[in-house]
Amino acid sequence: MLKIGITGGIGTGKTIVTRIFALLGVPVYDSDARAKWVMHHDAILRQELIAAYGPDAFTAQGDLNRPYLASIVFNNPERLAALNAIVHPRVRADFEVWTALHTNKPYILKEAALMYESDAWKQMDEIITVFAPMEVRMKRLQQRDAHRSEEEIKAIIEKQLSEDEKMKRAQHIIYNDEQTLLIPQVLELHTYFISKV
């Protein structure tokens, strides 16, 4: 079974691409959604977060206090790195358990915006980068994340590895630029991955 990573900056359209793969029967591990799940359900991780950030890391209802954690780490690279050092190993372990449930499939996808920053690429056989030009990304993000200012969106983009660097490191690029058809690109890769098994 192949492990295929799929990445791309915020607003490039990773979600729509992974949905197309999912319609083809490919299991997709959504790193962001799973990280949230793990932070809520992994007892070891909960203890580590409380030890590092205090009881306010979780609300009175027991939910992860995302605004509180974001306020601590967003503009502090050292604190963000410390948070990632706590969370990423637990998510990697969760991915291994999830992968074991899908060994009957020719390949699986792991979607992660921070594929390289989290070292998740080291678990993958090949990487797909979803690319969209900056003006297309900004338009999508202003529609999707209307609560965020343009400055906030740019700050998030600047914290991620550049698109040029992601494209250099990837074995495959899917262009989601509103000019190139997505489905044929996904079908071509789907056929390619199946042929490798």
Walkthrough of the structure:
With 197 residues, the chain is of the alpha/beta class. The chain has 9 helices and 5 strands. It folds into 2 domains: 1-27 and 107-197, P-loop containing nucleotide triphosphate hydrolases (Rossmann fold), CATH 3.40.50.300; 32-101. It comes from Pontibacter arcticus. InterPro entries: Depp_CoAkinase (IPR001977), P-loop_NTPase (IPR027417).
Mean pLDDT: 92
Strand order of the largest sheet: 2-3-1-4-5
Provide the number of structural domains.
Answer: 2
CATH top level of the largest domain is Alpha Beta
Order of helices and strands: EHEHHHHEEHHHEH
- Write the CATH homologous superfamily of the largest domain: P-loop containing nucleotide triphosphate hydrolases
The radius of gyration is 17 Å
Distance between the termini: 7 Å
Strand content: 5-15%
* Tally of separate helices: 9
CATH architecture of the largest domain: 3-Layer(aba) Sandwich
Low-confidence stretches: none
The CATH topology label of the largest domain is Rossmann fold
For the secondary structure, the number of strands is: 5
- Given the helix and strand composition, which structural class is it? alpha/beta
- Shape assignment: globular
Q: What is the helix fraction of residues, given as a range?
A: 40-55%
Pfam families: CoaE
Family: Belongs to the CoaE family.
EC number: 2.7.1.24
Enzyme class: transferase
